């Protein structure tokens, strides 16, 4: 943290239903991958902070899990992580896609009525819709009566991002730089490494497998022959899922490892020797003690 430098600074929560582009936006803003992305919903499980710093502003973006009605203990954790963040920030960005409101966004919109800080409606993926359709979409959200700003953007194309940052600057209070200007996330490296492995599982495996997986980095502190040795365990819930991740002759696990290693080396800036194991942990998503063991600890919510 830089002492005695007064700028606009604060914490901004990104909320919205799964797969609306929150992680993509945060990665774009900080200029580097700090949150994994996937075409499959419910990719983000923990609160992850990305730090944007300019000459006159520092914004700590909190990328929350997508809000949806809970069914499992893990789902309940993810919803509480999202909702708890709304009471700890200076601004909330409610991200939606350019389509009709739907029940999920109705649910989130009602939650946001209780928020005391300013809330912006951020309409993402506007590059995929005719501009004439935007105004009716914006008008449909006016019934919630609590949005201070309505901002169309595209997190993949960079459309509207400068307007978004200017508007955030207008609303943030004067404050210090909370983090060093070069820092882009508050998460430790082993967490980011585990997430990069999970990202490849999301991208490479069948629909029923990804959300039954968790990744835990067991060791990441030893260099052997000039390479950082990383050992990680992939947990699944069923033997069949283990078979899919390992693949015929170990082919799928090898591909997950190759793709993950490239991403990890880019993140860490050094050569990596990555070793992966797959273990079955039955019904782990509904087991509070196991969830705590692999890092989904309710202490993170405080």
TrEMBL record:
Protein family per UniProt: Belongs to the TRAFAC class TrmE-Era-EngA-EngB-Septin-like GTPase superfamily. Era GTPase family.
Region named G5: 153-155
Organism: Lactobacillus acetotolerans
GO biological process, one term: ribosomal small subunit assembly
Protein name: GTPase Era
Region (G4): 124-127
Location of region: G3: 63-66
CDD domains cross-referenced by the UniProt entry: Era, KH-II_Era
């Amino acid at each position: 943290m830089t002492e005695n430098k007064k700028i606009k600074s604060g914490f901004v929560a990104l909320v919205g239903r799964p797969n609306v582009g929150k992680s993509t936006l945060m990665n774009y803003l900080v200029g580097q991958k700090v949150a994994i992305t996937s075409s499959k919903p419910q990719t983000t499980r923990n609160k992850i902070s990305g730090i944007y710093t300019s000459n006159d502003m520092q914004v700590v973006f909190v990328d929350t899990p997508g809000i949806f009605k809970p069914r499992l203990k893990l789902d309940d954790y993810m919803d509480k992580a999202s909702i708890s963040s709304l009471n700890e920030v200076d601004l909330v960005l409610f991200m939606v896609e350019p389509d009709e409101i739907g029940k999920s966004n109705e649910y989130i919109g009602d939650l946001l009525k209780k928020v005391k800080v300013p809330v912006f409606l951020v309409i993402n993926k506007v590059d995929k819709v005719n501009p004439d359709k935007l105004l009716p979409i914006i008008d449909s959200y006016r019934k919630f009566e609590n949005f201070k700003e309505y901002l169309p953007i595209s997190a993949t194309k960079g459309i509207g991002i400068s307007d978004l940052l200017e508007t955030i600057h207008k609303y943030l209070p004067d404050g210090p730089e909370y983090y060093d200007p070069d820092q882009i996330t508050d998460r430790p490296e082993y967490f980011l490494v585990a997430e990069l492995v999970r990202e490849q599982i999301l991208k490479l495996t069948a629909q029923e497998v990804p959300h039954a997986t968790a990744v835990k980095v067991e060791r990441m502190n030893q260099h052997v022959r000039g390479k950082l040795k990383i050992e990680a365990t992939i947990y699944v819930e069923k033997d069949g899922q283990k078979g899919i991740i390992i693949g015929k002759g170990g082919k799928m696990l090898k591909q997950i490892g190759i793709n993950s290693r490239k991403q990890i080396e880019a993140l860490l800036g050094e050569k990596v020797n990555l070793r992966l194991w797959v273990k079955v942990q039955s019904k782990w998503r509904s087991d509070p003690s196991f969830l705590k063991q692999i890092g989904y600890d309710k202490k993170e919510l405080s």
